[in-house]
Amino acid sequence: MDAQGRGRAGGIDPADQWVFDPKTGSYELRLDHADGAEPAPGPGSTPSAITDPGSSASSFVPSSKASPRPAPRPKPGGRDVPGPRATGRRGAPGAKPGAAAGTKPGAGPGTKAGTKAGSRAAAAKAAATGRRKPKPKKSTKKKVLLWTGGTLAFVLVGGSLGAYLLYEHFNNNLNKVDVGINNGAVTKGPVNILVIGTDKRDGEGNKGYGDEGSVGHADTTLLFHVSEDRSNATALSIPRDMITDIPECTTKKDGTTKSIPGSKGVRFNESLGQEDRDPGCTWRTVEQLTGLKVTHFMMADFNAVKKMSSAVGGVEVCLGKDIDDPKSHLKLSKGRHKIEGEDALAFVRTRHSVGFESDLDRIKLQQQFLSSMIREMKSDDTFTNPKKLYNLGDAATKSLTVDSGIGSVSDLTRLAKDLSRVNLKNITFATVPVLDNPAEGKNHKTVVLDKAKAEPLFAMVRQDVSLTEVKEKEKKQQEQADAKQAALLQGPRSAPAAVRVKVLNGSGRMGAAQEAVSWMQNSKGMVRSSNGGNAAGGKKVDKTVLEFAPAQADQARRLADVMGLEADALKQRDGSAPAPAEMTLTLGSDFKAAGTPIHVQAPAKAPEDIQRVEADDKNICAK
């Protein structure tokens, strides 16, 4: 395709038309290639911004005072894209030759009027030539995260990929599935992205791997959790052979809605493909398993790893021994290698030559591969190379199937920008703790959830506790915030009968508010509690929150004791506002039943013997 997306012209690769300018930290789109040669900007050339719809990312088209280039032709149905034009008054109709428009008669040099006129003329000239005060240099470190699936492929793509001239090309690559939940691309709270790698064998590039007639399963699954303050992220790998329950789910296809009954005691990977289940069924299975609310999903097949690893020029991995696996076709010697394409896919699929030849050992390889790929994506070698960026964006979007909430490149870009604050050092991969299935005797083929270790881990993720050590400054700030919040629970408690509270239902479970009110009144003596109906807008919320005025702090402490609320559930209003007649308790999805403590305090550190990999660790070698 050419820069307008209508096909390659003159043999020019579209990626080669994007040139990185180290002075501005941005990419320039060169439209006047001649036989692949790159033009040099003429004297006085200035950038004209072209911005992607729905995105703040922009690229730049050079213009020249001596030989102005025509503006890019707008696409049918798209937004008009302005080309370079003079915005000053010089050369305006009626202006006298040799005179700056707007100059008053008699305003000669040396006069006050002349000085003002000269300033205006200079300003007009600057505007006409496009000259203006240069903007602060943009840092190439300000990156956009675009998380994608595959057999576990994450991609980090530079903001220039959302440029107008490439927008429709990438947008048309995406596939969407309506899972019956349409969350906005960006949310204020924590984000949980379900990443699914399917083993479906159909389609170009996917044949030749095992059973070509397979409907596809949730072969590799991660839940990528990003904390509310975007300071840390945890990717939970869910073993495909874990025995679990799959809840009832609804699918939508070709305008037809179908209800699929749940299954008990089956492999987790059957949550996709089997019984016509779609990613929405895996979505609901993960929510039931972890207690975390999924925000979006991304899914891709075998092709994703092959194409994206090649797009970045290879991903470095390390082996602690020689590997020759005839089943995955991986043949590598001990040591470090940079792999791509078929070798990369073989690496993330192999398991019979490492560890105990189990799926859990394969997960370790995948976590090593992903950590290395993220480091490669964050490197300047990728973000200053427009050809890599184009190939990477093309491969990523062609590999993706997403939910309707992020079903366009602009939506993905907005989500990516929201997540871009996460530091590489604070990203951790962990495997959901499991045990050999005791029902299978000595011949273990499946595993079951290790609840003793899994529940503390899930609690940490739900409460945004990082699995890595954050920077000392960040840690101190967090400790101060925690101490301030904890102080809300310190102090006197009012009598139960003095507690005035309105209970709203945001749990998503019918009758929860009335259940809580009846229990408060009849079992706890809080006779002034009332049912306020559904939460604002009828929306479901994740966490239970108690809002109160400073004058109601003693009532809030009493209610927190009764309901089992931790300090982070308390939200004190501005003290200058008049106190409302009653507090507001909004029940979230963490409310299970009246009398059951809502919040279980997460441990400060994860269990030491869980399988985990830190994304910035370059010294991991598979054995």
TrEMBL record:
It comes from Streptosporangium nondiastaticum. NCBIfam families: lytR_cpsA_psr (TIGR00350). InterPro entries: LytR/CpsA/Psr_C (IPR027381), LytR/CpsA/Psr_CW_biosynth (IPR050922), LytR_CpsA_psr (IPR004474). Residues 130-142 have a biased composition (Basic residues). Residues 217-379 form the Cell envelope-related transcriptional attenuator domain. This is LytR family transcriptional regulator. It comes from the Bacteria. Residues 55-68, 83-104, 112-129 have a biased composition (Low complexity). Belongs to the LytR/CpsA/Psr (LCP) family. The keyword Transmembrane helix applies. Keywords: Membrane, Transmembrane, Transmembrane helix. Signal peptide: none annotated.
